[in-house]
């Protein structure tokens, strides 16, 4: 095994060196070795992709889609994405110049943040939030101001106005709704109020709407419709079509912004994989039935695990979207969410994610993903109830 030359030990990107690996993945990796563990840690749909998507993938391989595609993605896929956004959300984008196909929403997030903001500039991230936004900003020398949205887990127009008054240097804002980790999303009225505040500014909005198809109450309203002139919309197929391994996402926005983001995308990956884009073309064109069936199943699973948590003394706002529950640890148990999550994994063999990894507002909470089988969720609920009951008996000295 080669050993690095000693004089090169200090080599490397200093910003990257200050950023820890993904806390979600790190915690998941640490508890994965526990025998018999039921993992509710990752946002990984347990559904297979549809047969139509599988066939489209095989067909693309058989027809030798093994070469470079256009950097922005196949025009047929961009046209389907454009039509889908128009049909579903009344958001209008020119597929030629205003849509880019990315290697998952993750690459889209990196390309957007790194292309649109400069080192030393400041962006706003409402928390709890998916940690990637802040990580990408840190690697690029971009300052982040967190806004704690607990306990409702929504950024209000009033709170946004207050923070912008206090920090006029803010150049952009990252919004994610339905939200990971909380499952919260905006009503139409709330989002319109938020958009009205942003419209009075020169903020660029990175709107991560990857969970748009997984809403359970009011229909999803896109900022691509309300605020198209200031918004870069990010989405993809991982959550709505269970295509996490296909790694296809997309960006949409004003031509001038997409030109910059598309350039960064080109430097990062050149283009998304050709067979996977052909599969995504099928998914976006004909995948709405599969998505509807998954959404209905998720809602049933949500109700199941919410009932078990409530009976165990956890409190959580009812998720309006995505497939996560962000639950407050009962006051009778340790409020150190990292310690609690480790103990739950070791003692009850249930894996959840500590809330503090999602930033301010997450301390004392845990995130549970119900993108798991109904059987596993039933058993996890039973184990959590037994765990809390056993802790109560220990406290009483029984």
Automatic annotation (TrEMBL):
Claim: Transferase is one of the keywords in the record: yes
Ordered alphabetically, the record's keywords are: Aminotransferase, Pyridoxal phosphate, Transferase
Q: Which SUPFAM superfamilies match?
A: PLP-dependent transferases
As recorded in UniProt, its EC number(s) are 2.6.1.-
Q: What GO molecular functions are on record for this protein? A: pyridoxal phosphate binding; transaminase activity
Q: What Pfam families does the record point to?
A: Aminotran_1_2 (PF00155)
Cofactor(s) recorded in Swiss-Prot or TrEMBL: pyridoxal 5'-phosphate
**Which GO annotations describe the biological process of this protein?**
amino acid metabolic process
Superkingdom, taxonomy of origin: Bacteria
Establish whether keyword Transferase is in the entry. Answer: yes
> Domain named Aminotransferase class I/classII large: which ranges?
37-384
Q: Which InterPro entries match?
A: Aminotransferase_I/II_large, AspAT/PAT-like, NHTrfase_class1_PyrdxlP-BS, PyrdxlP-dep_Trfase, PyrdxlP-dep_Trfase_major, PyrdxlP-dep_Trfase_small
Which CDD domains does the record cross-reference, listed alphabetically?
AAT_like
UniProt similarity note:
Belongs to the class-I pyridoxal-phosphate-dependent aminotransferase family.
What is the recorded name of this protein?
Answer: Aminotransferase
Q: Which organism is it from?
A: Lapidilactobacillus concavus DSM 17758
